[in-house]
Design a protein that fits this description.
heterodimer, A: 113 residues, mainly beta, six-stranded mixed sheet, five-stranded antiparallel sheet, 0% helix, B: 116 residues, seven-stranded mixed sheet, four-stranded antiparallel sheet, globular
């Protein structure tokens, strides 16, 4: 069964610190892996998109990595800011069907001043 | 562009009533998606359209749910009759190409539905 699992479920860090969120998936073969940021009460916003052949993708202070062999991805946030407080969702799209995209349950990140 | 527009932002209704959610995608996008998000199940794809045509509705939970896209700038998701377990946030998203490509999906702000 295709699954996407994220860890930790929630995380609290101090402003200015770095953090890394994890995403493990069993989807195979897959087309691409995305990280979304979802602020409370708003829709998800795309941070990064990686195909199976890409190892890393950056978007400002956000850097996503992908290891297709171990089926793991991580999202690293550098020098966190209060505005980084949000849920971060990992999404994997299989080749088989666009309608079978699989969402992780998300990591709830809280940045404390 | 104003982004994906959804209305209403909040809807409270009683069990058994009909509910209609509306979405205006970003102009020029060929694909439109309807999602549902709950605490228990997270985000789920309900249905998606390509050029106004429904392509896959396998995510629609029951016959009580229906979606239409009469033109490129408007789509509706209807629940009739509504039930308390339909309470969730419903998102509409649009993109130039399929979710399987590397095109970005742009999400609307969502409609928070509460069925009493």
């Amino acid at each position: 069964k295709n699954q996407v699992e994220q860890s930790p479920q929630s995380l609290i860090i101090l402003e200015g610190k770095n953090c890394t969120l994890q995403c493990n998936y069993t989807v195979s073969p897959f087309s691409n892996l995305r990280w979304y940021k979802q602020d409370t009460g708003r829709g998800p916003v795309s941070l990064t998109i990686m195909t199976f052949s890409e190892n890393t993708k950056s978007n400002g202070r956000y850097t996503a990595t992908l290891d297709a062999d171990t089926k793991q991805s991580s999202l690293h946030i550098t020098a966190s800011q209060l505005s980084d407080s949000a849920s971060y969702i990992c999404v994997v799209s299989p080749y088989s069907s666009a309608s079978k995209i699989i969402f992780g349950s998300g990591t709830r990140l809280s940045i404390r001043p | 562009d104003a982004g994906v527009i959804q209305s209403p932002r909040h809807e409270v209704t009683e069990m058994g009533q009909e509910v209609t959610l509306r979405c205006k995608p970003i102009s020029g996008h060929d694909y439109l998606f309807w999602y549902r998000q709950t605490m228990m199940r997270g985000l789920e794809l309900l249905i998606y359209f390509n050029n106004n045509v429904p392509i896959d509705d396998s995510g629609m939970p029951e016959d009580r749910f229906s979606a239409k896209m009469p033109n490129a700038s408007f789509s509706t998701l209807k629940i009739q009759p509504s039930e308390p377990r339909d309470s969730a946030v419903y998102f509409c998203a649009s993109s130039f190409r399929l979710a399987g490509s590397t095109d970005t999906q742009y999400f609307g702000p969502g409609t928070r539905l509460t069925v009493l």
